[in-house]
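So, can you check these tokens?
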Amino acid sequence: MFRVNIENLVRNKLYICKDYHIQPSEIDRMMFFDYETILEEINVLQKEQEKQQQEQEKAYGNLSPSSMSRSIGQQMNHQMESFKMPRVEMPKF
């Protein structure tokens, strides 16, 4: 006989229901080996997604939203400094 950690079972069931839109009753009807196989496949998919995400982060570099907004703000300041107001002279009568 084997032991099943109830907390992990419930946590995994919740995750599957939430992310894969499967009803809890459907998971309860599964044979345990089917359930275990699904969990293994989910783990494989997660690892692949993490690899893809890391590759994208490397491809885009360290472009965080705060650094992007900072560089945009610096560009706008530079443009505002180079912009000069036109001189308007009133005609003399």
The chain has a mean pLDDT of 82. Residues 1-60 form one domain.
